[in-house]
Amino acid sequence: MIPKDHPRYRSLVTRERLAACAREGVVTLEGLTAHGRGEAFDYLIGERTTESALLAERTAAAMLLSARSPVISVNGNTAALAAPLLDGLQAASRARVEVNLFHRTEERMEKITKLLESAGVGVLTGRAEPLLPLSHARALCLREGIFSADTVLVPLEDGDRCEALVSMGKRVIAIDLNPLSRTARTATLTIVDELTRAIPNITGACEKMGPGEGERLLSSPDNSYFLRAALDEIRGNLEHALD
Amino acid sequence: MIPKDHPRYRSLVTRERLAACAREGVVTLEGLTAHGRGEAFDYLIGERTTESALLAERTAAAMLLSARSPVISVNGNTAALAAPLLDGLQAASRARVEVNLFHRTEERMEKITKLLESAGVGVLTGRAEPLLPLSHARALCLREGIFSADTVLVPLEDGDRCEALVSMGKRVIAIDLNPLSRTARTATLTIVDELTRAIPNITGACEKMGPGEGERLLSSPDNSYFLRAALDEIRGNLEHALD
């Protein structure tokens, strides 16, 4: 339906994909609005992986590879946008994948698990317990998954959950296009990049990690460096935007 | 459900309202994503009416009051967010209101018309004709409404329609939180402010317009001034955002 030469082709196709997933119940209506916020920040960042984001992605790879028990926490938007890419990241990083939803229902858990499995992703299953310091269903996770993880990759996560994981002493890697969000500020490492660009970059960095490179990357700049770098990119882009 | 003291109360209530309207078919799934983009830009602008936006709103009032035939073009998001506010603006500006949808179906036209009418807004009805230089259903409008208007207020409009109206020689007033959007750049006057702040401000300016004030406002800065002022606000806000 969308012509391939449309200047916003990629963005429109992604939006249609998310709308289709919302009709199927994989993505929530709130998830669509959240995607719109991400679109705006991606527009401001220039819809490309910046140099500092690439360094964050390589650092994320080093964190995942050096982890004792890495877990990727997947929500509806992430599954809808990146299920096939998570297959590659799981293989390259040896991370386990757990579905963890802000708007959690058994029906959505099942739909998202199926979507991931059909893309080749191995998904942790079992009886979820209220193990996270969050209220109601948001406390639920798997004992052998997120609860036991030392490092958790949380793409597109909300601030409360990110804070809860950090408060449990975990190293949290966030993928978030808004460098000012609570998630971005709270995470151990924030990748300010679009999900479907970030994941293949982390996967590639895992696959190509040279000897000693991981150690060097793990001593790379702290999170505030990455947030400041993203803000500087946005400010630079805005400076000449109307010329 | 949402506690009144939540720091994001207003934003969350608005989001719930839009999600409810999406379930009723008033707002489209694409409309939810578009709202998310607006949320991001509103966050960057500081979620308040800037001085330059207030000047744009007073200028918009002068344009509407001096128009021969002013029309407010209303889409799903606008109706969902601002139906009661449009009643006041219509009374103060003497503008006619026409429903005009990007994703046009008879069912949505009816639902949105009813929603507006239940808020007291008088809505133009009749047989729409393909009078706009746009493809398919997007060309449809009323001969005695948008087609004959000399000044059209288009809140939350897409770039194509804004361009089409300008190409027909109309004065177009846009309300758009993204100062870089095609709509914002194409309109005769762009109000970079959130819809439910902008509309009451325009209404208030219509009601309080003093003698000679309209003429002075109509010779106010051109649109690029307002866009640059909005960008400067955003850049200024970003400068100290992480301090």
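qc> The interface with chain B takes residues 15, 18-19, 22-23, 29-30, 32-41, 43, 178-180, 185, 224, 227-228, 231, 234-235, 238-239, 241-242 of chain A (CB under 8 Å).
qc> done
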